[in-house]
Design goal:
Elements (H helix, E strand, L loop, with lengths): L13 E5 L5 E10 L2 E6 L4 E8 L2 E4 L8 E4 L3
Antiparallel strand pairs: 1-2, 2-3, 3-4, 4-5, 5-6
Length: 74
């Protein structure tokens, strides 16, 4: 199954979500430095760094014990 880029990494992009409990929160691309981005989410009031490495995006998600990566195929 082909995958799609659900989160175009462009400075200023914003996504709004709603939890199962009905709470809304926003995720926004707040900084860009080359292939590195900072994303802020209001759900946990935290920022995460994301870096593109080839066809993968590597995150320093503060809710994880180690960096994670997600493959991106277009």
């Amino acid at each position: 199954m082909p995958s799609t880029s659900y989160y175009p990494l462009t400075l200023g992009n914003t996504w709004t979500y709603k939890t199962n409990a009905g709470q809304s929160y926003t995720t926004k691309m707040t900084e860009q430095n080359g292939d590195a981005f900072t994303v802020h989410t209001t759900l946990v009031n935290a920022s995460t760094k994301i870096k593109r490495a080839g066809d993968e995006y590597i995150s320093d998600n503060p809710r994880r014990a180690r960096p994670s990566s997600v493959s991106r195929k277009t």
